[in-house]
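Give me a protein, keeping tokens residue-aligned:
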Amino acid sequence: MKILKAKHLGFCYGVRRSLSLVAGAKGKVYTYGHLIHNTRIVEELAEKGVRSVEDVSEAESGSSLVIRSHGAPVEVLEEAEARGLNVIDATCPFVQRTRDIVADMYAKGYTVVVFGKKDHPEVVGINSICGYGAVILDDANAIPDSLLKSEKVCLVAQTTASAKKFANIADKFTKDRLKTVEIFDTICYTTQERQREAEELSEACDKVLVIGDALSSNTLKLKEICEKHCSAFLIGSAEDLKRIKFSADDIVGIVAGASAPDESITEVLQYLANNFTDATDEEFLQAVGADETSGKKLSSGKTYTVRVVSADEKGITVDCGQKMDGFIAADDAELEGTAYDPANYPNGTEIEAKLISAKPDGAYPFSKKAVDEIKEGDKVVDTVRNGEEFELVVNKAVERNKEKNKGGGLLGKLGTYTVFIPASQIKERYVSDPRTYEGKTLRLVALEINDEKKRIVASQRVILERERKEREEIFWANVVPGVIVNGKVKSISKFGAFVSVDGYDCLVHISDVSWAKFKSIADVLTVGKKYDFVVLKADREKGKVSLGYKQLQKHPFDVAVENHPVGSVLKGKITSIMPFGAFVEVEPGVEGLVHVSEASNTYVKNINDIYKVGDEIEVKVLAIDSENKKINLSAKACMPEAVSEEKPKPDRKSSGSRAPRKDRDRDSGDAEWSEDSGNNPFADLLKDLKQ
């Protein structure tokens, strides 16, 4: 008999975390529902006094209530807090991510669609986020026509759902071309890996033993996958193996659900011990470059127990079991920050040290410091078991194996543990070339820790998604109309400038760039520079923010008023002429009006007779209307007073003649306009009629 084991066996990260939180809870402890879908573990918890309740009212006030990894409905969490319970939330990070997505999209008006089992506690909890209005699907053919006509749809999946079926449903939505559809693959990474391994193993085996409980959704999914290719058996304990007929030629595969305890797996392996040949995890060993050589000959990079022969200021001479001694230099004896003291290494003391090189130069070079650093790393592992963040330098990138359809990622070391970051967990978007991250430091959380194999599957994506969500909340809470923000100009288009504010793209429309006229936005705003802007409009639902730049600058009119108050004299150029007067440029972009009555110290019938566009004239500021942005100017006030000559008036009665109209107009230049004045031709006609 040949035995082939899947790489992912035993509890997933979410289950381990929930068990750890229960173990650390103080006082009387309850769990909301069965902590995990495994009868054996639930019974063991009950023996320890941990009681499972389906109704929060059954838990005593002041006791601890652990929320299982599946999460809980919103109303349950609210009731637990209201009853004064110490709520310990063990919701799996992958489940919480789905809940966050649903909350966000539901708030934006999307119809939420969940692929999964309607009565599964995880799906029930997710459905509560959107007021139990989600559409629950378990088959691509079950999509109602009414849903395909929806304006906006958000599709998520139960974390333990079938990856292939979810892909089929996603394709269905895409092909039917909904107006707006957002698809989020929220199936847990380890769930997908377990399903992929089950597929591959079952294709190569005669029988597959699926270790887990019949209550476990993900375990039943593994059995369903295996049954497509060979005989598959659900194994709860070694007792279940007695009903299976094995033959000596059988190739037997072993897979396990995420809630299968190590004890169950060990029992199965022990039962098959007489015919068991442990399969080597070739992919993992190849990825980490594991060295399987053994023997008395020393190997570089290996850790050995050596005995102190002598110690002085230069370092420690050690017996390493070879004809030639080993030597630990003083710089390689202690961790950074710890002083080396030869007195701490008396003769005969055994210490662990790593061989630096198998080619001695007078002595084999060892490093105790390297081993101590690894031990310190192992201490860090104990601090990250509950989802705490840690940093890791990437040592190596693993490329995707297209033939075997196996994903790539990144590798690093944390003490004696090898850390693997799948390509899908590096950033929020899939990283096609992980090699660009070699040598870089990542911020991570552990998704799964396998102490037996010294492996950690970690994610930076979880951290980035959480921080983005936090930034979004802070951004939209503070970016409201009237608030001044600082942003960097990213690009300029014909209709405006795009500005980055705390990582969000905002728009400054061309009409809000400057008060003054300009040929190009680039004349006012420079790409790459930071400026202060005022928020004009913020629409979270549409994700749009409108900014203004000119609103924070002084209006050209205000500048002109400051520079030219009432009574001041200035020179300006005539920009245009109208029948009622001439407009003169006071400052760039600001004009004042010289009314026709203020154009000259003599009567002006047609202002075009004395001025033309482009003339530069001296004017005095008569009045300023700040509310209506108007400036009244006078050219007459800057001219010397006109000298008038007295002429005898003609005797109308004696001569019977009238002065020429041209002469009368000229003589009456300074007269007021009235019906009795010479400036009024109708008055003159009436006078003639009276004669």
Summary: The radius of gyration is 43 Å. DSSP finds 17 helices and 33 strands in the chain. The first strand starts at residue 2 and ends at 5.
